Amino acid sequence: MSVVITNPGQHEGPIRPGLLGLISEPADTTFALPSQARWLITFFLVLGAALRLVRYAQNLPLWSDECFLAANFIGRDYLGLVKPLENGQIAPILFLWIERFVLDLLGFSEWSLRLFPLLCGLASLVLFWHLARQVLAGQPVALALAVGIMAVSVHPIRHAADAKPYASDLLTALMLLTPAVHWLRRPGQLGWLWLLTGLVPIALGLSNPAVFVAGGIGLAIVGQVRRLASWKCWLAFASYGLVMTAAFGLLFSLVGQPQSPQVLEGLRTYWAPAFPPFSSVWKLAAWLVSMHTGSAFAYPGGGARGGSSATFLACVVGAAVLARRGHGSVLACLLWPFALAFIAAGLRLYPYGSEARLMQYAAPSICLLCGLGAVTTLECLGNLRLRRNLLRLAVLGLVVCGIVPQVVSSRFPYRMVYDHQSREFARRFWVGQSSGADLNCAHLDYGVGMGQKWVGRKAWYLCNQMIYSPHRTGSARPSPRKPSLQRPLRCVLFDEPFESPAVKEWLEAMQSHLALNSRTVYQVPVTVGEGRPDIDRWEVLEFVARGNEPAPDLVRRGENARLRR
What we know:
By secondary structure, the protein is an alpha+beta fold. The protein is built from 21 helices and six strands. Helix 2 runs antiparallel to helix 5 (110-135), helix 8 packs antiparallel against helix 15 (328-346) and helix 10 (210-228) packs across helix 15.
Protein backbone atom coordinates (compact mmCIF):
# COMPACT_ATOMS: atom_id res chain seq x y z
CA MET A 1 0.00 0.00 0.00
CA SER A 2 1.25 3.47 -0.83
CA VAL A 3 0.00 6.84 0.31
CA VAL A 4 0.22 9.79 -2.08
CA ILE A 5 0.37 13.33 -0.75
CA THR A 6 -0.97 15.46 -3.53
CA ASN A 7 -0.15 18.97 -2.36
CA PRO A 8 1.54 20.33 -5.50
CA GLY A 9 3.05 23.23 -3.61
CA GLN A 10 5.25 20.81 -1.76
CA HIS A 11 6.07 18.65 -4.80
CA GLU A 12 5.84 15.50 -2.73
CA GLY A 13 5.76 11.99 -4.19
CA PRO A 14 4.75 8.58 -2.93
CA ILE A 15 5.83 7.40 0.50
CA ARG A 16 6.62 3.69 0.31
CA PRO A 17 6.65 1.70 3.55
CA GLY A 18 9.78 -0.32 4.23
CA LEU A 19 13.37 -0.08 3.08
CA LEU A 20 13.11 -2.49 0.14
CA GLY A 21 10.33 -0.49 -1.43
CA LEU A 22 12.43 2.64 -1.29
CA ILE A 23 15.44 0.93 -2.77
CA SER A 24 13.56 0.23 -5.96
CA GLU A 25 13.10 3.87 -6.95
CA PRO A 26 14.22 7.30 -5.75
CA ALA A 27 11.71 9.29 -3.78
CA ASP A 28 13.90 11.84 -2.04
CA THR A 29 12.01 14.72 -3.66
CA THR A 30 9.60 14.33 -0.74
CA PHE A 31 12.18 16.24 1.31
CA ALA A 32 12.57 19.37 -0.74
CA LEU A 33 12.02 20.98 -4.10
CA PRO A 34 14.84 20.38 -6.62
CA SER A 35 15.60 24.11 -6.52
CA GLN A 36 16.06 23.92 -2.76
CA ALA A 37 18.43 20.98 -3.15
CA ARG A 38 20.42 22.92 -5.76
CA TRP A 39 20.73 25.81 -3.35
CA LEU A 40 21.94 23.40 -0.67
CA ILE A 41 24.55 21.92 -3.04
CA THR A 42 25.84 25.40 -3.88
CA PHE A 43 26.03 26.23 -0.19
CA PHE A 44 28.08 23.12 0.57
CA LEU A 45 30.44 23.72 -2.36
CA VAL A 46 31.12 27.27 -1.17
CA LEU A 47 31.46 26.12 2.44
CA GLY A 48 33.83 23.30 1.48
CA ALA A 49 36.05 25.64 -0.55
CA ALA A 50 36.05 28.20 2.27
CA LEU A 51 37.02 25.58 4.87
CA ARG A 52 39.94 24.40 2.74
CA LEU A 53 41.14 27.97 2.21
CA VAL A 54 40.79 28.73 5.92
CA ARG A 55 42.82 25.66 6.80
CA TYR A 56 45.52 26.71 4.35
CA ALA A 57 45.47 30.32 5.59
CA GLN A 58 46.07 29.20 9.17
CA ASN A 59 49.62 28.33 8.05
CA LEU A 60 50.10 25.67 10.72
CA PRO A 61 53.70 24.63 11.44
CA LEU A 62 54.96 21.67 9.47
CA TRP A 63 54.22 18.41 11.28
CA SER A 64 56.30 15.26 11.31
CA ASP A 65 55.16 13.66 8.05
CA GLU A 66 55.47 16.96 6.20
CA CYS A 67 58.97 17.60 7.57
CA PHE A 68 60.14 14.09 6.76
CA LEU A 69 59.06 14.51 3.14
CA ALA A 70 59.94 18.20 2.72
CA ALA A 71 63.52 17.63 3.91
CA ASN A 72 64.05 15.60 0.75
CA PHE A 73 63.60 18.74 -1.37
CA ILE A 74 66.64 20.34 0.25
CA GLY A 75 69.55 19.83 -2.10
CA ARG A 76 67.72 17.52 -4.52
CA ASP A 77 66.85 18.39 -8.09
CA TYR A 78 64.29 16.58 -10.26
CA LEU A 79 66.61 13.68 -11.01
CA GLY A 80 67.61 13.42 -7.37
CA LEU A 81 63.98 12.93 -6.37
CA VAL A 82 63.89 9.70 -8.37
CA LYS A 83 66.34 8.17 -5.90
CA PRO A 84 65.14 6.63 -2.61
CA LEU A 85 63.83 9.30 -0.26
CA GLU A 86 65.20 9.95 3.21
CA ASN A 87 63.27 9.52 6.46
CA GLY A 88 61.42 6.41 5.27
CA GLN A 89 59.31 8.40 2.82
CA ILE A 90 57.58 7.00 -0.27
CA ALA A 91 55.84 9.42 -2.64
CA PRO A 92 54.74 9.37 -6.30
CA ILE A 93 57.23 10.91 -8.69
CA LEU A 94 54.91 13.40 -10.44
CA PHE A 95 53.82 14.74 -7.06
CA LEU A 96 57.47 15.22 -6.08
CA TRP A 97 58.29 16.96 -9.35
CA ILE A 98 55.34 19.33 -9.07
CA GLU A 99 56.36 20.19 -5.51
CA ARG A 100 59.94 20.77 -6.73
CA PHE A 101 58.66 23.08 -9.48
CA VAL A 102 56.55 25.11 -7.03
CA LEU A 103 59.49 25.45 -4.62
CA ASP A 104 61.75 26.61 -7.44
CA LEU A 105 59.12 29.14 -8.44
CA LEU A 106 58.02 30.47 -5.04
CA GLY A 107 60.77 29.48 -2.62
CA PHE A 108 60.79 27.05 0.30
CA SER A 109 57.95 27.80 2.72
CA GLU A 110 54.88 26.29 4.32
CA TRP A 111 52.78 28.18 1.76
CA SER A 112 54.59 26.82 -1.28
CA LEU A 113 54.86 23.27 0.06
CA ARG A 114 51.10 23.15 0.57
CA LEU A 115 49.97 25.03 -2.54
CA PHE A 116 49.61 22.02 -4.84
CA PRO A 117 47.72 19.95 -2.22
CA LEU A 118 45.38 22.93 -1.76
CA LEU A 119 44.69 23.08 -5.49
CA CYS A 120 44.08 19.32 -5.45
CA GLY A 121 41.62 19.73 -2.58
CA LEU A 122 39.66 22.51 -4.31
CA ALA A 123 39.60 20.64 -7.62
CA SER A 124 38.47 17.46 -5.86
CA LEU A 125 35.47 19.23 -4.38
CA VAL A 126 34.23 20.39 -7.79
CA LEU A 127 35.04 17.08 -9.48
CA PHE A 128 33.24 15.12 -6.77
CA TRP A 129 30.13 17.22 -7.33
CA HIS A 130 30.34 16.41 -11.04
CA LEU A 131 30.77 12.68 -10.33
CA ALA A 132 27.95 12.65 -7.80
CA ARG A 133 25.59 14.23 -10.34
CA GLN A 134 26.18 11.21 -12.57
CA VAL A 135 25.85 8.55 -9.89
CA LEU A 136 22.89 10.15 -8.08
CA ALA A 137 21.05 11.57 -11.08
CA GLY A 138 17.43 12.39 -10.23
CA GLN A 139 18.08 12.26 -6.48
CA PRO A 140 18.74 15.87 -5.47
CA VAL A 141 18.69 15.40 -1.71
CA ALA A 142 21.02 12.40 -1.81
CA LEU A 143 23.28 14.46 -4.08
CA ALA A 144 23.20 17.38 -1.66
CA LEU A 145 24.06 15.19 1.33
CA ALA A 146 26.89 13.43 -0.54
CA VAL A 147 28.40 16.76 -1.59
CA GLY A 148 27.93 18.06 1.95
CA ILE A 149 29.73 15.07 3.45
CA MET A 150 32.69 15.52 1.11
CA ALA A 151 32.72 19.29 1.68
CA VAL A 152 32.91 19.23 5.48
CA SER A 153 34.70 15.98 6.32
CA VAL A 154 37.80 16.63 8.37
CA HIS A 155 40.25 14.46 6.44
CA PRO A 156 39.82 15.95 2.94
CA ILE A 157 39.99 19.42 4.50
CA ARG A 158 43.08 18.65 6.57
CA HIS A 159 44.98 16.96 3.76
CA ALA A 160 44.24 19.84 1.38
CA ALA A 161 46.72 21.78 3.56
CA ASP A 162 49.29 18.99 4.05
CA ALA A 163 52.55 18.84 2.12
CA LYS A 164 51.90 15.17 1.41
CA PRO A 165 50.29 13.34 -1.54
CA TYR A 166 47.05 12.53 0.29
CA ALA A 167 45.10 15.28 -1.50
CA SER A 168 46.40 14.06 -4.85
CA ASP A 169 45.27 10.53 -3.92
CA LEU A 170 41.72 11.89 -3.65
CA LEU A 171 41.96 13.94 -6.84
CA THR A 172 43.32 11.10 -8.96
CA ALA A 173 40.58 8.75 -7.75
CA LEU A 174 38.02 11.28 -8.96
CA MET A 175 39.92 11.84 -12.22
CA LEU A 176 39.54 8.14 -13.00
CA LEU A 177 36.05 7.51 -11.63
CA THR A 178 34.41 10.45 -13.42
CA PRO A 179 35.07 9.40 -17.05
CA ALA A 180 34.42 5.75 -16.14
CA VAL A 181 30.95 6.53 -14.76
CA HIS A 182 30.21 8.84 -17.66
CA TRP A 183 30.96 6.02 -20.10
CA LEU A 184 28.95 3.46 -18.13
CA ARG A 185 25.94 5.78 -18.28
CA ARG A 186 26.47 6.48 -22.00
CA PRO A 187 28.35 3.49 -23.49
CA GLY A 188 28.00 4.87 -26.99
CA GLN A 189 30.26 7.82 -26.15
CA LEU A 190 33.67 6.17 -26.41
CA GLY A 191 35.39 9.51 -25.92
CA TRP A 192 35.02 9.03 -22.17
CA LEU A 193 36.84 5.69 -22.35
CA TRP A 194 39.66 7.24 -24.36
CA LEU A 195 39.84 10.12 -21.86
CA LEU A 196 40.15 7.56 -19.08
CA THR A 197 43.00 5.95 -20.99
CA GLY A 198 44.80 9.27 -21.30
CA LEU A 199 44.37 10.12 -17.63
CA VAL A 200 45.55 6.85 -16.13
CA PRO A 201 49.35 7.46 -16.50
CA ILE A 202 48.96 10.91 -14.95
CA ALA A 203 46.96 9.44 -12.08
CA LEU A 204 49.52 6.72 -11.40
CA GLY A 205 52.29 9.33 -11.45
CA LEU A 206 50.46 11.51 -8.92
CA SER A 207 49.24 8.80 -6.54
CA ASN A 208 50.57 5.41 -5.54
CA PRO A 209 47.18 3.95 -4.46
CA ALA A 210 45.61 5.20 -7.71
CA VAL A 211 46.54 1.76 -9.06
CA PHE A 212 43.72 0.30 -6.94
CA VAL A 213 41.21 2.68 -8.52
CA ALA A 214 42.57 2.16 -12.04
CA GLY A 215 42.59 -1.62 -11.68
CA GLY A 216 39.16 -1.64 -10.05
CA ILE A 217 37.67 0.38 -12.90
CA GLY A 218 39.11 -2.07 -15.43
CA LEU A 219 37.50 -5.00 -13.61
CA ALA A 220 34.22 -3.10 -13.26
CA ILE A 221 33.76 -2.08 -16.90
CA VAL A 222 34.87 -5.28 -18.60
CA GLY A 223 31.34 -6.71 -18.31
CA GLN A 224 29.86 -3.73 -20.13
CA VAL A 225 32.53 -4.02 -22.82
CA ARG A 226 31.62 -7.68 -23.38
CA ARG A 227 27.90 -6.89 -23.62
CA LEU A 228 28.51 -4.21 -26.25
CA ALA A 229 30.64 -6.60 -28.34
CA SER A 230 32.00 -3.70 -30.41
CA TRP A 231 35.53 -3.81 -31.80
CA LYS A 232 35.86 -0.06 -31.21
CA CYS A 233 34.91 -0.56 -27.59
CA TRP A 234 37.32 -3.49 -27.25
CA LEU A 235 40.08 -1.38 -28.79
CA ALA A 236 39.51 1.43 -26.30
CA PHE A 237 39.36 -1.02 -23.39
CA ALA A 238 42.49 -2.86 -24.51
CA SER A 239 44.29 0.47 -24.89
CA TYR A 240 43.28 1.37 -21.34
CA GLY A 241 44.68 -1.89 -19.99
CA LEU A 242 47.91 -1.59 -21.96
CA VAL A 243 48.49 2.05 -21.00
CA MET A 244 47.76 1.32 -17.34
CA THR A 245 50.14 -1.65 -17.30
CA ALA A 246 52.87 0.22 -19.19
CA ALA A 247 52.58 3.31 -16.98
CA PHE A 248 52.73 1.23 -13.81
CA GLY A 249 55.73 -0.72 -15.12
CA LEU A 250 57.54 2.43 -16.25
CA LEU A 251 57.00 4.22 -12.94
CA PHE A 252 58.07 1.17 -10.97
CA SER A 253 61.24 0.79 -13.04
CA LEU A 254 61.93 4.54 -12.88
CA VAL A 255 61.71 4.69 -9.13
CA GLY A 256 62.91 1.11 -8.64
CA GLN A 257 62.97 -0.07 -5.06
CA PRO A 258 61.83 3.12 -3.29
CA GLN A 259 63.56 2.20 -0.03
CA SER A 260 66.06 -0.22 1.39
CA PRO A 261 64.77 -3.57 2.68
CA GLN A 262 65.37 -2.38 6.25
CA VAL A 263 63.23 0.72 5.75
CA LEU A 264 60.49 -1.24 4.00
CA GLU A 265 60.43 -3.75 6.85
CA GLY A 266 60.18 -0.85 9.30
CA LEU A 267 57.19 0.50 7.38
CA ARG A 268 55.55 -2.92 7.42
CA THR A 269 56.04 -3.06 11.16
CA TYR A 270 54.43 0.37 11.52
CA TRP A 271 51.57 -0.70 9.23
CA ALA A 272 51.13 -4.11 10.90
CA PRO A 273 47.69 -3.28 12.38
CA ALA A 274 46.50 -2.49 8.83
CA PHE A 275 47.36 -5.96 7.50
CA PRO A 276 44.63 -8.64 7.74
CA PRO A 277 45.34 -11.43 10.27
CA PHE A 278 44.76 -14.63 8.30
CA SER A 279 45.81 -16.85 11.20
CA SER A 280 42.24 -17.05 12.54
CA VAL A 281 38.79 -16.62 11.01
CA TRP A 282 37.56 -14.87 14.14
CA LYS A 283 40.53 -12.49 14.23
CA LEU A 284 39.99 -11.70 10.57
CA ALA A 285 36.29 -11.04 11.12
CA ALA A 286 37.02 -8.75 14.07
CA TRP A 287 39.71 -6.97 12.04
CA LEU A 288 37.31 -6.41 9.13
CA VAL A 289 34.70 -4.93 11.46
CA SER A 290 37.31 -2.70 13.09
CA MET A 291 38.74 -1.44 9.79
CA HIS A 292 35.31 -0.67 8.29
CA THR A 293 33.94 1.11 11.35
CA GLY A 294 37.08 3.06 12.19
CA SER A 295 39.14 5.95 10.87
CA ALA A 296 38.92 5.00 7.18
CA PHE A 297 35.14 5.60 7.22
CA ALA A 298 35.26 8.82 9.28
CA TYR A 299 32.98 10.83 6.95
CA PRO A 300 31.86 13.38 7.93
CA GLY A 301 33.16 12.44 11.37
CA GLY A 302 33.97 9.34 13.35
CA GLY A 303 37.05 7.51 14.46
CA ALA A 304 38.57 4.29 15.71
CA ARG A 305 36.88 1.64 17.84
CA GLY A 306 33.57 1.74 15.99
CA GLY A 307 33.31 5.51 15.83
CA SER A 308 32.38 5.37 12.14
CA SER A 309 29.79 2.58 12.39
CA ALA A 310 26.92 4.80 11.26
CA THR A 311 28.81 5.81 8.12
CA PHE A 312 29.60 2.20 7.25
CA LEU A 313 25.98 1.11 7.71
CA ALA A 314 24.81 4.00 5.53
CA CYS A 315 27.32 2.89 2.86
CA VAL A 316 25.91 -0.64 2.99
CA VAL A 317 22.41 0.71 2.43
CA GLY A 318 23.65 2.96 -0.38
CA ALA A 319 25.36 0.02 -2.08
CA ALA A 320 22.15 -2.01 -1.86
CA VAL A 321 20.23 0.87 -3.44
CA LEU A 322 22.59 1.09 -6.43
CA ALA A 323 22.55 -2.68 -6.91
CA ARG A 324 18.74 -2.90 -6.68
CA ARG A 325 18.32 -0.11 -9.24
CA GLY A 326 20.50 -1.88 -11.78
CA HIS A 327 23.64 0.23 -11.43
CA GLY A 328 25.89 -2.74 -10.71
CA SER A 329 28.76 -1.59 -12.94
CA VAL A 330 28.85 1.84 -11.30
CA LEU A 331 28.76 0.19 -7.88
CA ALA A 332 31.62 -2.08 -8.94
CA CYS A 333 33.72 0.98 -9.87
CA LEU A 334 33.16 2.28 -6.36
CA LEU A 335 33.87 -0.99 -4.54
CA TRP A 336 36.58 -2.77 -6.52
CA PRO A 337 39.33 -0.42 -5.20
CA PHE A 338 38.54 -1.67 -1.69
CA ALA A 339 38.95 -5.27 -2.81
CA LEU A 340 42.26 -4.64 -4.57
CA ALA A 341 43.60 -2.66 -1.61
CA PHE A 342 42.58 -5.52 0.69
CA ILE A 343 44.53 -7.96 -1.49
CA ALA A 344 47.56 -5.64 -1.35
CA ALA A 345 47.24 -5.50 2.43
CA GLY A 346 47.06 -9.29 2.56
CA LEU A 347 50.37 -9.34 0.66
CA ARG A 348 51.78 -6.74 3.11
CA LEU A 349 52.30 -4.24 0.30
CA TYR A 350 49.98 -1.41 1.36
CA PRO A 351 47.97 -0.71 4.54
CA TYR A 352 44.20 -1.06 4.56
CA GLY A 353 41.71 0.77 6.74
CA SER A 354 43.85 1.87 9.67
CA GLU A 355 44.09 5.57 8.75
CA ALA A 356 41.88 7.74 6.59
CA ARG A 357 44.89 9.62 5.20
CA LEU A 358 46.14 6.43 3.57
CA MET A 359 42.71 5.70 2.06
CA GLN A 360 41.83 9.03 0.48
CA TYR A 361 41.36 7.15 -2.79
CA ALA A 362 38.28 5.55 -1.16
CA ALA A 363 36.74 8.85 0.00
CA PRO A 364 34.58 9.38 -3.14
CA SER A 365 33.00 5.94 -2.81
CA ILE A 366 32.33 6.39 0.90
CA CYS A 367 30.79 9.86 0.56
CA LEU A 368 28.58 8.85 -2.38
CA LEU A 369 27.27 5.67 -0.77
CA CYS A 370 26.87 7.32 2.62
CA GLY A 371 24.80 10.19 1.20
CA LEU A 372 22.54 7.81 -0.72
CA GLY A 373 22.21 5.42 2.20
CA ALA A 374 21.39 8.18 4.68
CA VAL A 375 18.57 9.56 2.50
CA THR A 376 17.19 6.06 1.86
CA THR A 377 17.15 5.37 5.59
CA LEU A 378 15.31 8.61 6.29
CA GLU A 379 12.76 7.69 3.63
CA CYS A 380 11.76 4.71 5.75
CA LEU A 381 10.15 7.07 8.23
CA GLY A 382 6.45 7.48 7.49
CA ASN A 383 6.14 10.84 9.24
CA LEU A 384 6.98 13.53 6.68
CA ARG A 385 7.47 16.24 9.30
CA LEU A 386 9.91 14.06 11.20
CA ARG A 387 11.84 13.32 8.03
CA ARG A 388 12.11 17.00 7.16
CA ASN A 389 13.27 17.87 10.66
CA LEU A 390 15.87 15.11 10.62
CA LEU A 391 17.12 16.36 7.27
CA ARG A 392 17.48 19.88 8.67
CA LEU A 393 19.31 18.43 11.66
CA ALA A 394 21.63 16.49 9.34
CA VAL A 395 22.44 19.64 7.36
CA LEU A 396 23.15 21.54 10.57
CA GLY A 397 25.31 18.66 11.79
CA LEU A 398 27.35 18.76 8.59
CA VAL A 399 27.96 22.48 8.99
CA VAL A 400 29.08 21.95 12.58
CA CYS A 401 31.36 19.07 11.54
CA GLY A 402 33.07 21.39 9.08
CA ILE A 403 33.44 24.48 11.23
CA VAL A 404 34.31 23.13 14.68
CA PRO A 405 37.68 21.52 13.73
CA GLN A 406 38.82 24.79 12.14
CA VAL A 407 37.87 26.73 15.27
CA VAL A 408 39.81 24.24 17.39
CA SER A 409 42.87 24.45 15.11
CA SER A 410 42.78 28.26 15.28
CA ARG A 411 42.99 28.03 19.07
CA PHE A 412 45.67 25.35 18.98
CA PRO A 413 47.49 26.06 15.68
CA TYR A 414 49.59 22.92 15.45
CA ARG A 415 49.25 19.15 15.16
CA MET A 416 51.75 18.41 17.93
CA VAL A 417 53.25 20.74 20.53
CA TYR A 418 56.75 20.10 19.19
CA ASP A 419 55.73 21.39 15.76
CA HIS A 420 54.85 24.73 17.33
CA GLN A 421 57.87 24.86 19.65
CA SER A 422 60.41 24.09 16.95
CA ARG A 423 59.00 26.68 14.56
CA GLU A 424 58.74 29.45 17.15
CA PHE A 425 62.32 28.91 18.30
CA ALA A 426 63.59 28.79 14.71
CA ARG A 427 61.82 32.06 13.90
CA ARG A 428 63.72 33.86 16.67
CA PHE A 429 66.97 31.96 16.46
CA TRP A 430 67.85 32.34 12.78
CA VAL A 431 67.01 36.04 12.61
CA GLY A 432 68.78 36.75 15.90
CA GLN A 433 71.95 34.87 14.96
CA SER A 434 72.20 36.60 11.60
CA SER A 435 72.34 40.02 13.24
CA GLY A 436 75.83 41.47 12.85
CA ALA A 437 77.31 38.23 11.52
CA ASP A 438 77.49 35.94 8.51
CA LEU A 439 75.44 32.82 9.29
CA ASN A 440 76.02 29.30 7.99
CA CYS A 441 74.78 25.83 8.82
CA ALA A 442 77.49 23.25 9.47
CA HIS A 443 75.24 20.57 7.98
CA LEU A 444 73.94 22.22 4.81
CA ASP A 445 76.87 24.54 4.02
CA TYR A 446 79.75 22.22 4.99
CA GLY A 447 78.15 18.78 4.80
CA VAL A 448 78.73 17.83 8.44
CA GLY A 449 76.77 14.64 9.10
CA MET A 450 75.00 14.85 5.75
CA GLY A 451 76.21 11.37 4.84
CA GLN A 452 73.93 10.04 7.55
CA LYS A 453 70.19 9.49 7.19
CA TRP A 454 68.26 12.55 8.35
CA VAL A 455 65.82 11.09 10.81
CA GLY A 456 63.93 12.32 13.81
CA ARG A 457 63.90 15.98 14.82
CA LYS A 458 66.63 17.01 12.39
CA ALA A 459 63.92 17.13 9.73
CA TRP A 460 62.16 19.96 11.61
CA TYR A 461 65.50 21.74 12.02
CA LEU A 462 66.28 21.55 8.30
CA CYS A 463 62.84 22.65 7.11
CA ASN A 464 62.49 25.53 9.55
CA GLN A 465 66.00 26.71 8.69
CA MET A 466 65.12 26.76 4.99
CA ILE A 467 62.03 28.84 5.77
CA TYR A 468 63.29 31.26 8.45
CA SER A 469 67.05 31.68 8.05
CA PRO A 470 67.80 34.95 6.21
CA HIS A 471 70.77 33.17 4.63
CA ARG A 472 68.39 30.67 2.96
CA THR A 473 65.65 33.11 2.00
CA GLY A 474 68.11 35.48 0.34
CA SER A 475 67.43 38.56 2.47
CA ALA A 476 70.88 38.51 4.10
CA ARG A 477 73.44 36.67 2.01
CA PRO A 478 76.84 36.08 3.67
CA SER A 479 79.50 38.64 2.87
CA PRO A 480 82.55 37.38 0.97
CA ARG A 481 84.88 39.38 3.25
CA LYS A 482 86.94 37.71 5.92
CA PRO A 483 85.23 37.19 9.29
CA SER A 484 86.24 39.72 11.92
CA LEU A 485 85.36 40.58 15.49
CA GLN A 486 82.95 43.19 14.09
CA ARG A 487 81.29 40.70 11.72
CA PRO A 488 82.17 37.09 12.61
CA LEU A 489 81.12 33.89 10.88
CA ARG A 490 78.63 31.86 12.91
CA CYS A 491 78.11 28.17 12.15
CA VAL A 492 75.22 26.18 13.63
CA LEU A 493 75.22 22.52 14.67
CA PHE A 494 72.01 20.72 15.61
CA ASP A 495 71.83 17.52 17.60
CA GLU A 496 75.34 16.57 16.58
CA PRO A 497 77.84 15.39 19.26
CA PHE A 498 80.70 17.86 19.40
CA GLU A 499 83.14 14.99 19.85
CA SER A 500 81.91 13.08 16.78
CA PRO A 501 84.53 12.36 14.06
CA ALA A 502 82.55 14.37 11.50
CA VAL A 503 82.53 17.49 13.70
CA LYS A 504 86.21 17.11 14.62
CA GLU A 505 87.24 16.79 10.99
CA TRP A 506 85.18 19.83 10.00
CA LEU A 507 86.48 21.89 12.94
CA GLU A 508 90.09 21.11 12.05
CA ALA A 509 89.45 22.23 8.48
CA MET A 510 87.83 25.47 9.66
CA GLN A 511 90.63 26.24 12.13
CA SER A 512 93.25 25.80 9.43
CA HIS A 513 92.37 29.28 8.18
CA LEU A 514 90.03 30.73 10.85
CA ALA A 515 90.16 31.14 14.60
CA LEU A 516 87.40 29.88 16.91
CA ASN A 517 86.05 32.93 18.71
CA SER A 518 83.33 31.35 20.84
CA ARG A 519 81.11 28.32 21.25
CA THR A 520 77.57 28.71 22.59
CA VAL A 521 75.31 25.79 23.42
CA TYR A 522 71.55 26.29 23.57
CA GLN A 523 69.63 23.56 25.36
CA VAL A 524 66.03 24.19 24.43
CA PRO A 525 63.27 22.46 26.45
CA VAL A 526 60.71 20.85 24.15
CA THR A 527 57.73 18.50 24.38
CA VAL A 528 57.73 15.43 22.16
CA GLY A 529 55.30 12.57 21.56
CA GLU A 530 52.33 12.60 23.88
CA GLY A 531 53.80 15.12 26.30
CA ARG A 532 57.27 13.77 27.11
CA PRO A 533 59.77 16.55 27.99
CA ASP A 534 63.07 16.57 26.13
CA ILE A 535 65.90 18.87 25.04
CA ASP A 536 66.90 20.17 21.61
CA ARG A 537 70.61 20.95 21.49
CA TRP A 538 71.81 23.78 19.23
CA GLU A 539 75.45 24.88 19.07
CA VAL A 540 76.75 28.12 17.58
CA LEU A 541 80.46 28.24 16.75
CA GLU A 542 81.75 31.70 15.97
CA PHE A 543 84.85 32.16 13.81
CA VAL A 544 87.05 35.16 13.00
CA ALA A 545 90.05 35.56 10.71
CA ARG A 546 93.47 34.58 11.97
CA GLY A 547 95.08 37.48 13.80
CA ASN A 548 91.72 38.74 15.10
CA GLU A 549 91.46 36.26 17.97
CA PRO A 550 90.18 37.67 21.27
CA ALA A 551 91.92 37.19 24.56
CA PRO A 552 91.98 33.52 25.74
CA ASP A 553 89.43 34.14 28.49
CA LEU A 554 86.87 35.18 25.88
CA VAL A 555 87.04 31.93 23.96
CA ARG A 556 84.12 29.51 24.56
CA ARG A 557 82.13 32.21 26.32
CA GLY A 558 78.47 31.43 26.74
CA GLU A 559 79.03 27.65 26.73
CA ASN A 560 75.98 25.75 28.02
CA ALA A 561 73.82 28.86 27.85
CA ARG A 562 70.22 27.78 28.39
CA LEU A 563 67.35 29.43 26.56
CA ARG A 564 63.98 28.87 28.19
CA ARG A 565 60.65 29.53 26.53
